Amino acid sequence: xxxxxxxxxxxxxxxxxxxxxxxxxxxxxxxxxxxxxxxxxxxxxxxxxxxxxxxxxxxxxxxxxxxxxxxxxxxxxxxxxxxxxxxxxxxxxxxxxxxxxxxxxxxxxxxxxxxxxxxxxxxxxxxxxxxxxxxxxxxxxxxxxxxxxxxxxxxxxxxxxxxxxxxxxxxxxxxxxxx
Length: 179
Known about the structure:
Layout: H1 2-11, H2 15-24, H3 26-32, H4 38-55, H5 58-78, H6 83-100, H7 104-120, H8 124-140, H9 144-161, H10 164-178
Helix pairs in contact: 1-2, 1-4, 2-4, 4-5, 4-6, 5-6, 6-7, 6-8, 7-8, 8-9, 9-10
């Protein structure tokens, strides 16, 4: 149950809640997380760390970026076992780290690569996440028309996946960007 709560918090962009859940139950996640889900645990952990790095400054920011890089390295080590499942995740984490540094053009290229590989492997959740995060980055960069295209694509992917809470969350984001 704890695994599911953590993954849902991370998927719903509830980064502080996901971080709190992880830190409060660190030993549980180390011992009882199913091996097949370790890739997703580390992937979402890296995304949460990168998102929280954008919200902080100074030492705390550097600590979060280091954590995301460490988890990136763990995922990279798994690349030889299941490259089709991991390569898009590596590009997405890398894109998020570029976004942290304010390198929007480089980040966009990495988001697009993540989208390409997720789409090619039919990983709908990863495809939707990459589109959503690219849309949010473009919005912050002031590229609103491109942002809407990516977020609408994410909305359609979440809808086809049956993630109605994410669809509502994206609808609220789209409405807030238009006003």
